[in-house]
Structure formats: structure tokens, C-alpha cells
Amino acid sequence: MPITSEAWKPYERGYHVMYREHEINHCPGCGRTHWIIGRMSAECAFCATALPLAEASMRSHNAPTIIQHKNSHARDWAA
């Protein structure tokens, strides 16, 4: 179903700042790179500028959430 609304024009939205995981993110407020990461946003540790997480906006809310541990590929268990 195509979106026909006049409000949906991403090319007219302009520059959209987002926090992107696995990239160096400079704060648009102070230029530093130290962030406090939450579930939906990241906050600059120096000037408190908040940015939405790019991954949070791409998540499908219709599908169930699957939690995977970062070390799930490792088969070495402590004895």
C-alpha cells in the first residue's frame, strides 16, 4: 500500500541527525564522542544532547523481540 500523504516527503525533511551503532558519532552540540546509550536514544555525556537511535527506528514492532547474547557464538563455558 503506497503512502500518498503530502506529509511523507523525506527529501524535504533535510538533515536528520541519528546515533548510528558501530560508527563514530560526533555530538552535534559539542563535537565530542562520549555517549550514554539507552533503548531508544543516546545522550551526549558532556552536553546532554539526545539523539534517536537509528536501530530503534528501524525495528519492526509487529514481530516478537528476540534477545540474543553477545557471546552466543562462543562454545567455551567456564568450568
Q: Which spans of ≥5 residues are poorly predicted at pLDDT below 50? A: none
Strand order of the largest sheet: 1-2-3
How much beta, percentage-wise?
A: 5-15%
- The proportion of residues forming helix, as a percent range, comes to 10-25%
Structural class label: alpha+beta
Total strands: 3
Q: So what's the overall shape?
A: flat
Q: Mean pLDDT, as a whole number?
A: 78
Distance between the first and last residues' Cα = 55 Å
- Tell me the series of helices and strands, N- to C-terminal: HEEEH
* Rg measurement, Å: 18 Å
Q: Report the total helices.
A: 2
Largest sheet: 3 strands, antiparallel
Give the SSE layout.
Blueprint: H1 10-13, E1 35-37, E2 41-44, E3 50-52, H2 54-58
Antiparallel strand pairs: 1-2, 2-3
Which key terms come to mind for this protein?
alpha+beta, three-stranded antiparallel beta sheet
Can you put this structure into words, describing what you see?
This protein has helices at 10-13, 54-58, and strands spanning 35-37, 41-44, 50-52. By secondary structure, the chain is of the alpha+beta class. It has a domain at 12-58. Strands 1-2-3 form a 3-stranded antiparallel sheet. The protein is flat.
In short:
The chain has 79 residues and is α+β, with helices and mostly antiparallel strands. The protein is built from two helices and three strands; from the N terminus they run αβββα.
